[in-house]
Amino acid sequence: MTEEKNESPINWIKILFGTTLALCALSLALIAINLRPLAIWANYQSACIEKESSKAPIEWAVRKCNGRSKVYQVK
After folding, report:
1. What integer pLDDT is reported at residue 44 of this predicted model?
2. DSSP 66
3. Across residues 55-71, what is the average pLDDT?
4. How confident is the model at residue 38 (pLDDT cuts 50, 70, 90)?
5. Which of 1, 5, 15, 53 shows the smallest number of beta carbons within 10 Å?
6. What is the pLDDT of residue 58?
7. Exposure string over 2-36, b if 16+ CB within 10 A, otherwise e
8. What is the pTM of this model?
9. Integer angstrom CA distances of residue 68 from 37, 59, 60, 65
């Protein structure tokens, strides 16, 4: 009597593809987490420039928000 085996062979291509896809997703998640402080700073800069540009030109508002207003003072 011969017994038939119904075992399916392991598809290494699908395993490799799935692992690669998971690593890519993890990498993108880590990049997004690491960019969060930059997004907070950018929002602060936008709010600061909006507030300061009502008093002075945008160029001066940007310098002031970047902490360089003393460097560019005209005497």
Report:
1. 93
2. T
3. 80
4. very high
5. 1
6. 87
7. eeeeeeeeeeeeeeeeeeeeeeeeeeeeeeeeeee
8. 0.57
9. 21, 11, 9, 8
Residues 46, 54: Cα–Cα separation, whole Å: 13
Coil, strand, or helix at residue 57? coil
- Burial (CB count <10 Å: 0-12, 13-18, 19+), residue 69: middle
**What helix, strand, coil percent values describe the chain, rounded to 5?**
65, 0, 35
Confidence bin at 70 (pLDDT 50/70/90)? low
The token pair at 22 is: 């998971």
C-alpha dist (Å) from residue 71 to 10, 13, 61, 75: 67, 60, 13, 11
Do the beta carbons of residue 61 and residue 48 sit within 8 Å? yes
